[in-house]
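Hi C.,

You asked whether I'd gotten around to modeling the 326-residue construct. I have! Everything is below, sequence then structure, no commentary in between.
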Amino acid sequence: MDDPVESADKAALDALYDRAYATFDNGELQQASALFGELAALRPDLAYPHYMRGLAHKYLRDWPASLQHNLRAQEMQEEFDEASAWNAGIAATALGDWAEARRQWAQCGITVPEGEGPIETDFGMVSVRLNPWGSGETVYARRIDVVRARLLNVPLPESGHRLFDIVLHDGAKTGERRLGDGTVPVFNVLQTLQRSDHRTYVAFVQCPGIEDKEALEQAELPGIGFVEDWTHSIRHLCLRCSYGVPHLKEHPKGDTDAGNDDWRTERQLGIGAQGKAAVERLLADWVAAGPGRRVDALESREVDVEGPAEGSVWWRGPEEDEPDQA
């Protein structure tokens, strides 16, 4: 016959287990960490409560606590656990603890350049989701590290990010995006590690034809990073309206870049540049070099983006049925 006391203790432990995971799955991360801490105190022989605390603090972007709990989870496991190693590597990278980051990547079988400082090499192209708890704008980036990438698109000013920012991204992909003839993985950005000096400027211009737009995209000038045509790629809002720039409301349905037929002369451009003077000179030179070219407005905004709200399960991919715990 079962011991009633032992049965009651097991029921209480099972209830705490269920509550801890349910709280985590609801995005209540501080409370989830506390509940997993209670589990760890009741069952000091188990590693998973420490792993789950490390995971919760990763999504809280509390890097010292995340590293601490992931390392504790590793110490308690007889066999290598790749998930805790990845999360420890992410936390160590965020903290600039390069020795620990290199140790974790070595455990995962990932080769990185030898040395003691920051890791910087070419891990290939990816797409990253900026502010995944918010608008989730995706841009292309080049990985310079296992979990660091340099942005290679001009982000919307509203994203709070800049061209050439170095960002920390998660280790689990949340989708794929086409690039050339193939696809690249999409990773959630966790935070900005190194802010670029290339602010985003939005130019509203009149381009008589495709060749006029291409001339502006290909122009080179000191202080200018990239010029991108956002007329087609930014579909979820009308930038001219959001910046209060007058424009025609009607546009041909067949507007494409394939030729001048049905060409939309009103263009909205994203320009990553080190200063407004460089952008003004670029646009002035462009206007002077071709008939019918015109600049309607040049705008720039600096936006402080808030972090994730409590209760937001933002780390899940758009097609995931279960929360990602890697």
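If it helps when you're writing up: The chain has a mean pLDDT of 88.

Thanks,
B.
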